[in-house]
UniProtKB/TrEMBL annotation, chains A, B:
Pfam families: Cu_amine_oxid (PF01179), Cu_amine_oxidN2 (PF02727), Cu_amine_oxidN3 (PF02728). This is Amine oxidase. It catalyses: a primary methyl amine + O2 + H2O = an aldehyde + H2O2 + NH4(+). It comes from Eutrema salsugineum. Gene3D superfamilies: 3.10.450.40, Copper amine oxidase, catalytic domain (2.70.98.20). Contains 1 topaquinone per subunit. One of its GO terms (biological process) is response to auxin.
Length: 744, 744
C-alpha cells in the first residue's frame, strides 16, 4: 500500500467503525501479556505503540545493503526494580498502582475515569539527599492524577501499604490535567462522527477519506470554555502527501467536548481559501533521493571511540562520566528529569552538589494571528500534551551519533497499563573538534609553548514531536563544570492557507500598505505564521548544599572623578543579594547587563569568594504580548527571563499543575508575587529560553534546526580551572579506522 | 635545561649582548637561503620562526610511544604561483616587492625604515567578480605600508611594471601602522637598556635574570602621546613558572619610544605590592600530569572519515565543499579572509553569490581599571598587533581534529623578507552529533515517520595568541546555507597584583563598602581585572549580486481592536528598508527586537519574496563606556552592534587604517556619520560580537574557552529547505574502527 495514503485509509476504516459503535471508554487497551505490559505485537493501532508501529512499517531502504551489526535485544522492563529513591515507577509498580486503585471507591462507580498521570511521588528532598547506595529505599509512592466523571483528583498511592490519600477533592485551581494519548487519538476521529462536520469538509472539495484532523488545545479565553473540557480540531488534506500539515483546510475549526468527544461547534471562515497543493511537500528520504543532489557528496563521518564510551549508567538511571554524576529519568510531562547532579572537585577529591533537579517545566508557543482559526493557538506543550509523552523513539545514527546509549521511558496508559517508549533518551560523548582551553606563547617570549586541550562533553538528548513541531532538548555536561541546556527547533511549520500565490497579489490599502498576512508567503497558498517559542526550565540548584542565595552582579558605568585618571569611565561590578522573590524577577537588557550567581555564602574558596554557579543567558527572546492578553496571563511565567522562588515541592510546573484551559491563577508569576524570602534559602531558579520565529521559505516543507541555549557555569566554585590537568589528544590513542563496513 | 627558565636565560644572554651593542636596525634578518625565505634552520631567535622554534623545543612526551604515521612533508612555498586574483602575495612576489623597493628613492636614504605590511593590493571588485578560471590574472600589485624615519607611507607596487605609487605622503589621519614583530621583540629588551629601569626592577626584589617585560600598546589619551610612537612595557617575574603572566611586578610601567626603543619614563606605583607567587600557575601537560586526575579517565574519541574529507582546496586557496565554495587566505592583520563565498542552489543548479569578503576587521579590549598602570589597557589587537601575525601554528589533533587540513600563512618581515607561518589555518568537517532537521510523526497520526538528518559542517579555524589571550576564530559553513562566525576566548588572564590574600582582608569604608578591586581575587595576591572583548566583523554580503538593501524587520506588539478577537494583542513584523547609514546603525534590544535582512530587491523567489540573508545576533555585549572616553572614541566602532556602509575599498579597518595611537578620527563611526545612501547599493554590514568578562577562579591559571557567535542565515534566499534531499547516516557507510594504533 502506498504509505502516504495509509493515514487516510485508517480514517476510512475507523470512521466506518464509528458509525456502528462509538464508545468513550478509556479502558480500551487492556494488558494482554503476562508481564502486564501493553502488548503491541498485534500491530495494534494503540497510540502507545509508537516504536513498534515504526518497526512494522519500516520504510524500504534505497540502499539494499544489510546492516552488518545485529541489533541488540531491547531491554525487557518487566522485571525492573527501583534502585534509587528517584527511580521512576517500574512496570511492576505501575501495575501495582492500577491494582490498588481498581478496588478504590472512586473508581468503582460507573462514571468514566482515566489516569492522566501515574508517576513516582518523589520522597521528601531531605530523605533523598541523605540516602546512600545500600540503604533501603524510602517508601515508594505514586502520584496519580485521575479524571472521574467531571472531576479531577490527585491521589498519592503508597505501594507497600496500599494506602491511598486523596490530596484535594476536587482540586481548586483552574484548568485540567494533561491530555492522555488515548483521548488525543480519539479526538482525531471525533469530527467524522458529526454529519455537519463531514458536510463542511466535503463542501471544501475534499474527500473524507483524504482528511486528517488534529487536536489543538483550546487555550482559555473566558466563559465560552468555562466548566467544560474542550478542544479544537483542525483538518488537513492528506491527498498526495505525508506532509499534510502543508495542506490545511483553512478557516475550519471544530470545537469538541474533550470528555464526550462530541462536536460542539463548527466554524468555517475559509470557504474561499483553496487548499494548498501537495507539490514539493515531501520530505521522506526514500521518496526524494536523487543522485544529482550535491549534498549527497559528503563522505561518511562518525564520532568514534575505539575503547568504548567513558560513561556508565549504573542501575539503569545513574549516569557517571568523567567528573560528573547525575540521576536521569524519562518523565511523561517534562521529557527528562536530571537530578542529584554532582561534580568531582579535583582539588579536594570530593564530589560536590550542583543541582538537585532540572527539567523543562513548561513551554509556551503563541501564534501571532488574531483571526478566528488562529487566535487560540497558544500551546503549552508540557502541561497540555505531555512533553515526554510526545517524545518518540530516537533514530540511532541520526538523532544521536553511533556511540550513543539509549534509555527507554516506562509510562502509564490512560487505563493504568504500563507501556514502554523505547529509545526515548540518548546519552553520548561529543567531540566536535572544539577546544577546552589553549595557550600558545607568541615568539617574542621565546617560550616554545603550544598547550591545547580538546573539549569532550557528555550529551543527554530527547526529541519531542508535539504535532508538527519537533523540539530537541540537550543537556550537555562539560568537564570544566559547565552545564549547557540547549533547545533545537525543527519539524514542520503550522501554516495558514491563503488565496495568494505570489506576494505581488497581496492587496494594498489606499496608503499602499500591504494587507497584514501575519507571516511569510512560503509557497503558493501557504503562509508561515509568525510565532514564538518559550521553554521554561526549572533549575533547583543546590550549590554545595541546599541553602543558597541569588546574587545579581550588575555591570554599570562608573565615571571617574576629575583628575583621577586619563580615562573618563570604566565598568564596575556591583553585587546585590536578592532578599525576596521580587529581587529575583529579571528582565535582561544589553545596556543594563548583569551576571546572575547562585552562591552558597556559608562556603567560600581559599581566598574567600563564596562558591557559586552562574546562569548565563545566551541568545533568547521576550514575549511582547500584552500582560492582560489571556494567553500571556496563562503564560505569565514568561514575563521575566529569570525568576527565583523558595523551594516548594508543589511548585514545579510554571504554567500550573493543571495547565489545560487554566486561567493563569497557578503560574510561577502568581507564586513569585507572594514575594517570599529567598536569601540563604533552598531556592529554585527558573530560566526561560525564547525564540521569535518569522518563517522563511527555507522552513518549507520542513525546517532546518534552529538552536539556542543557556549555561550553568561554575563561578568561584572551584579553586582553579578544574580541567587544568586534562590530557591532550595523542595520535597513538586514536582509532585505526578502515573503509566502510559493507565490504566486510 | 629546565624549560621554564629558558626565557629568563634568553634575557640574560640578550641583555648582556645589549650592553655591548644596541642597534635599532630593522633589517636584521636577511634572507640566507636561495629561496629568499627567512632561514629558521639555525634555531634562530627570530620572532618569525615561530613554528620551527616549537619543533626544536618539542616537549617530552609523558607517553613514550611513537606516532605510527609519518608526518607529511611541509609545503615548500618557494615556487608558489598565484592562481586567483585574490591569492595572497607569494614568496617570489614578496621578494620582488622588496627588490623593487630597494631601489626606490624613499628607501635609499640613511633614515631607518621598516615595512609594517606587505600584502596583496586586491584588484578592483568588478575585475575580481568578472574573472573566471583560465583567464589571465588582473595585474598583481602589492600594498605596502612603510615607516621611513618619522613618516608613514602607503605605496602600491605594480609587480609586472615595477612601478611604485605613493598613495599619500605622509598619510593625514592620526595613528601609526601595525607594529612589526621585530619591534615588539625589541621592546621586550628595551627596559634592560635603562639603568633606571633595572634599578627599579631590582628594588622590587626580583633578579633581572628572572624578569620578562612585554609590550603593551599605549592607546591615546591626549598630548602626552602626540607626535611620538610610544609603547608601554609591563614586567613580570618568570621565576619558577612558565606562566609569568600570573607574576606581575604590579604598578611598574615603563614608557618606551617605539622608534628608538629608548626608555622615556618609568613609573612605579606598586612598591608595596608583593609579586604573586608561582604556586599553582603551571599549565604545561608534561609538568602537571598525574594519574589520579579523573579527567584522564576519558576514553579516546575522534571524528573519523574512512573515505577521507569531502572538501578539496584547489590551487592552494579555493575551498570547495558540499554546496559551498569560497576563497580562503591568511592575512597578517585580519587573521583569515574569506572571499567570493558562493552557495549551490539545488533548485536552479546554479552557484549563487552570498558574500564578497568577510573577516575580523578590528578588536577592542578595554580593561576596567582607571589607575595609572591599567587605564591605558584598551587594546586593538588587529590594528596594533596584527591578528594574523599573532596566529601561531595550530596543534594537530588538539586545535583541530584529526581530519583537518592545514594552510600556511606567507607574510613579510620588517625588512621585506618573506616568511612562512606554518599550519596557521585549519579546515575540517565537523560532525558533533547534531541534527540538521528532523520530524517524527506522533502515534496519533498513524504515519510511521521518523525522518532525521545528521548535521555535518565545514569549519575554517585560526587561533591568535595576542600576548596572554588566545582568540579562536571559526567560520562554520552549514549545508543549509547558514554561515556561523564564532569566537572562542581562552589563554591566560591579564592580572593585577594586590596585597590582599583573602577577600576578608579587603578594606571597607565607614559605610561598610569594600574597596573597589576592579575585579575578582583569583588566588593570593592576584586580581583578575574586569574587561570586555569586542570583535568587529567586516561582512561585504553580496546577495545574488552587489546591489543589496538592508531591511530592519521590526517585531512589535499590535493591540487588537475591540471585538476583533478574543486575543488582546499579537506580534507583527514591520519591514523598514534602510535609506541611509543612520538607518543601519543598530543597537540590539530584547524588548524592541528586529530581524536584520540583507536583500536583493531585484531578485525574488517564485512567490515574490526578495532573496536575502539575515544577520542573526546571538549572545553578545555592548560597551558601557562613556562615548567621550578616549578609548571609546577610538573604539567607537563598538557604539552600535550593527552598522551598514556603502562599499568603499578604503573602508576596511573599523578602527582606522592606522589604529596604533589613533585619535578616533578614522573609525567606522566617523565614516557612518556621513550618512550616505545605502539602499540598492553595494553595501557592507559590520557586526560586533561582544563579551563582558568578570574573571572567576576557574579562569586561573588558564581559562576554559568561552565562546559566542552570530549567524548569516539564508532568508527566502532558497525556494525551500536546501537540505531537504540530504541523506541520513546508514550503518554500512560508517567506518570500522579498531583499538588504538599503538598495538600495531
Amino acid at each position: 500500500m502506498d504509505q502516504k495514503n495509509l493515514l487516510c485509509v485508517i480514517f476510512l476504516i475507523v470512521t466506518a467503525g464509528l458509525i456502528i459503535s462509538f464508545t468513550s471508554t478509556n479502558f480500551s487497551h487492556a494488558p494482554s501479556s503476562t508481564t502486564g505490559l501493553l502488548d503491541c505485537t498485534d500491530s495494534s493501532s494503540s497510540p502507545l505503540c509508537a516504536s513498534r508501529n515504526f518497526l512494522f512499517n519500516k520504510p524500504k531502504r534505497l540502499t539494499p545493503k544489510k546492516d552488518p551489526k545485529p541489533k541488540p535485544k531491547n531491554h525487557d522492563h518487566s522485571s525492573d526494580k527501583p534502585n534509587h529513591p528517584l527511580d521512576p515507577l517500574t512496570v511492576v509498580e505501575i501495575n501495582k498502582v492500577r491494582s490498588i486503585l481498581s478496588s478504590h471507591a472512586l473508581f468503582s462507580s460507573r462514571a468514566p475515569h482515566a489516569f492522566h498521570s501515574i508517576v513516582l511521588e518523589e520522597p521528601e528532598k531531605n530523605l533523598v539527599i541523605s540516602w546512600e547506595k545500600g540503604n533501603p529505599l524510602p517508601p515508594r509512592k505514586a502520584s496519580v492524577i485521575a479524571r472521574v466523571g467531571p472531576n479531577t483528583h490527585v491521589l498519592i498511592v503508597d505501594l507497600s501499604s496500599g494506602r491511598v490519600d486523596l490530596e484535594d477533592t476536587p482540586v481548586r485551581v483552574s484548568g485540567y490535567p494533561m491530555m492522555t494519548l488515548e483521548e488525543m487519538n480519539e479526538v482525531t476521529f471525533a469530527p467524522f462522527s458529526s454529519a455537519d462536520a463531514n458536510r463542511t469538509i466535503v463542501s471544501r472539495g475534499v474527500n473524507l477519506t483524504d482528511v486528517s484532523c488534529f487536536p489543538l488545545s483550546s487555550g482559555w479565553y473566558g466563559k465560552k470554555e468555562e466548566n467544560k473540557r474542550v478542544i479544537k480540531s483542525q483538518c488537513y488534506s492528506c491527498q498526495g502527501t505525508a506532509n499534510f500539515y502543508m495542506r490545511p483546510i483553512e478557516g475550519l475549526t471544530i470545537l469538541i467536548d474533550l470528555d464526550t468527544k462530541q462536536v460542539i461547534e463548527i466554524v468555517d471562515t475559509g470557504p474561499t481559501i483553496p487548499i494548498p497543493g501537495s507539490t514539493n511537500t515531501e520530505y521522506r528520504f526514500q521518496n526524494l533521493a536523487t543522485t544529482t543532489d550535491k549534498t549527497r557528496l559528503l563522505n561518511p563521518i562518525s564520532i568514534e571511540q575505539p575503547r568504548g564510551p567513558s560513561f556508565v549508567i549504573e542501575d539503569n538511571h545513574l549516569v557517571k562520566w568523567a567528573n560528573w554524576e547525575f540521576h536521569l529519568k524519562p518523565d511523561p510531562r517534562a521529557g527528562v528529569v536530571i537530578s542529584r547532579v554532582k561534580v568531582h572537585d579535583p582539588d579536594t577529591q570530593q564530589t560536590r552538589d550542583v543541582m538537585y533537579r532540572g527539567f523543562v517545566s513548561e513551554l509556551f508557543v503563541p501564534y501571532m494571528d488574531p483571526s478566528d482559526a488562529w487566535y487560540f493557538k497558544t500551546y503549552m506543550d508540557a502541561g497540555e500534551y505531555g512533553f515526554g509523552l510526545q517524545a518518540m523513539p530516537l533514530v540511532p545514527l541520526n538523532d544521536c551519533p553511533r556511540n550513543a546509549a539509549y534509555m527507554d521511558g516506562v509510562f502509564a496508559a490512560a487505563d493504568g497499563t504500563p507501556f514502554v517508549r523505547e529509545n526515548m533518551v540518548c546519552v553520548f560523548e561529543r567531540y566536535a573538534g572544539d577546544i577546552g582551553w589553549r595557550h600558545s606563547e607568541s615568539p617574542i617570549s621565546g617560550l616554545p609553548i603550544r598547550e591545547v586541550r580538546p573539549k569532550v562533553t557528555l550529551v543527554v538528548r530527547m526529541a519531542a514531536s508535539v504535532g508538527n513541531y519537533d523540539y530537541i532538548v540537550d543537556y550537555e555536561f562539560q568537564t570544566d563544570g559547565l552545564i549547557k541546556a540547549k533547545v533545537g527547533l525543527s519539524g514542520i511549520l503550522m501554516v495558514k492557507g491563503t488565496p495568494y500565490q505570489n506576494k505581488n497579489h497581496i492587496k494594498k490599502d489606499k496608503e499602499g500598505n500591504e494587507e497584514e498576512l501575519h507571516g511569510t508567503l512560503l509557497s503558493e497558498n501557504i503562509i508561515g505564521v509568525i510565532h514564538d517559542h518559550y521553554v521554561t526550565f526549572y533549575l533547583d540548584l543546590d550549590v554545595d548544599g541546599t541553602d543558597n542565595s541569588f546574587v545579581k552582579v550588575n555591570l554599570k558605568r562608573q565615571e571617574t572623578e576629575p583628575g583621577e585618571s586619563p580615562r573618563k569611565s570604566y565598568m564596575k561590578a556591583v553585587r546585590n543579594i536578592a532578599k525576596t522573590e521580587k529581587d529575583g524577577q529579571i528582565k535582561l537588557s544589553m545596556y543594563d547587563p548583569s551576571e546572575f550567581h547562585v552562591i552558597n555564602s556559608a562556603k567560600t574558596t581559599r581566598v574567600g569568594n563564596p562558591t557559586g554557579y552562574k546562569i548565563v543567558p545566551r541568545a533568547t527572546a521576550a514575549s511582547l504580548l500584552d500582560h492582560d492578553d489571556p494567553p500571556q496571563k496563562r503564560g505569565a511565567f514568561t514575563n521575566n527571563q529569570i525568576w527565583v522562588t523558595p523551594y516548594n515541592k508543589s511548585e514545579q510546573w510554571a504554567g500550573g499543575l493543571f495547565t489545560y484551559q487554566s486561567h493563569g491563577d497557578d503560574t510561577l508569576a502568581v507564586w513569585s508575587d507572594r514575594d517570599r524570602d529567598i536569601e540563604n534559602k533552598d531556592i529554585v531558579v527558573w530560566y526561560t529560553l525564547g525564540f521569535h520565529h518569522v518563517p522563511c521559505q527555507e522552513d518549507f516543507p520542513i525546517m532546518p534546526t534552529v538552536s539556542s541555549s543557556f549555561d550553568l557555569k561554575p563561578t568561584n566554585f572551584f579553586e582553579r580551572n578544574p580541567i587544568l590537568k586534562a590530557a591532550p589528544n595523542f595520535e597513538h590513542d586514536l582509532p585505526v579506522c578502515g573503509a566502510e563496513s559493507v565490504s566486510a
